[in-house]
Design a protein that fits this description.
Elements: H1 6-19, H2 33-47, E1 58-60, E2 63-65, H3 67-77, H4 80-88, H5 93-96, H6 99-111, H7 121-138, H8 144-155, H9 164-173
Antiparallel strand pairs: 1-2
Length: 182
């Protein structure tokens, strides 16, 4: 029987800390929403200096994407009973994610209003992850309008109904933008 690696356990605890609920392996590889929000979460945390793995990212349909992280998630998904057993036994929690790291994750979660978006979590986290990626990797120093325009171009979504300025200010306050923007 396969067991969880340290990196998989770290991912599971990070997910639970960030989203307030356990990671549940998808029943099929066609339902990948949990992979998308895991990718976005890991990228955002990486940009805040939280070490949850050495993953490199590029742009994908949903925003920042790490092939290495996807391998970790898919491997983990094959052993759902191990995931469940891990969450039941909390003996290793402090060793895997120390209190300082958990506090950082909770701060970021609260600052980005993750709990306020449980009904539209996928869209919210995908939006934030995409903006952070574009503002730091593709368009460092670009203005809010420039980054949102690129987002619109890449994703084909309408951004007119989005409160761009308040989202941008939130990301700027959390130092998730390459610069303060123009």
């Amino acid at each position: 029987m396969a067991t969880l690696t340290f990196d998989q356990k770290r991912m599971l605890l990070t997910y639970k800390t960030f989203y307030g609920e356990p990671y549940i392996a998808p029943s099929s590889q066609t339902n990948t929403d949990i992979h998308v929000i895991s990718q976005e979460m890991c990228f955002i945390l990486k940009m805040k200096g939280v070490n949850i793995g050495d993953y490199s990212y590029s742009w994908n349909t949903h925003g920042p994407f790490s092939p290495g992280l996807l391998v970790l998630l898919r491997t983990m998904d094959r052993i759902p009973s191990e995931i469940e057993n891990f969450y039941i036994s909390s003996e290793e929690y402090g060793y895997i994610l120390n209190q300082e790291t958990r506090n950082k994750i909770i701060h970021i979660k609260n600052a980005l209003k993750i709990d306020e978006h449980t009904n539209d979590r996928l869209d919210w986290v995908e939006l934030l992850g995409s903006l952070v990626y574009l503002a730091n990797v593709e368009l460092p120093g670009a203005s809010c309008d420039e980054v949102f325009e690129r987002l619109k171009m890449y994703k084909g979504i309408e951004t007119d109904g989005i409160d761009k300025k308040s989202i941008w200010e939130m990301l700027k306050t959390e130092k998730l933008l390459a610069t303060t923007g123009r």
